[in-house]
Amino acid sequence: IEIYKHLKFKKWVVLKKSDGAWLQDGPFSSEEIFSKLESSELKPETHIWKKGFKKWTQIRDTDEFSGLYVD
Predict the structure, then answer these.
(1) Around Cβ 30, how many Cβ atoms within 10 Å?
(2) Partners of 23 in the beta sheet?
(3) Digit-coded pLDDT (tens) for 19-44
(4) CB atoms within 10 A of CB 38
(5) Which of 67, 70, 22 is nearest to 49 (CA)?
(6) Is residue 42 within 8 Å of residue 36, measured between CB atoms?
(7) Which of 10, 17, 25, 35 has the fewest CB atoms within 10 Å, i.e. the most exposed one?
(8) What is the residue-wise DSSP string for 47-62?
């Protein structure tokens, strides 16, 4: 379906801690991020970035994913 095509674009980079160091991982599509959240591979507080962002942002604070979380 046309309205869901944007979910497949690989535009997201995540910041993960591995062996005490912060590493960038990606790029991932929105669809892949949703899947990683569902499987708990990523958490709502994981930092994420895409072109146009001024800084790393927690997944739950992005417009695209914020509706998944209620404080």
Answers:
(1) 19
(2) 16
(3) 999 999 999 999 899 999 999 999 99
(4) 10
(5) 22
(6) yes
(7) 17
(8) EEE-TT-SS-EEGGGS
Q: Is the peptide bond before 27 cis (omega within 30 degrees of 0)?
A: yes
**What phi and psi, each to the nearest 5 degrees, are found at residue 24?**
-85, 140
Question: What is the pLDDT, as a whole number, of residue 1?
Answer: 47
The two tokens of residue 52 are: 């146009």
User: In this structure, which amino acid lies at residue 27?
Assistant: P
Strand order in the sheet with 10-18: 21-29, 10-18, 47-49, 57-58
Residue entry with tokens 């993960």: 16
Task: Give per-residue pLDDT as tens, 40-68.
Answer: 999 999 999 999 999 999 999 998 888 77
Q: Tell which residue, 16, 24, 11, has the closest CA to residue 52.
A: 11
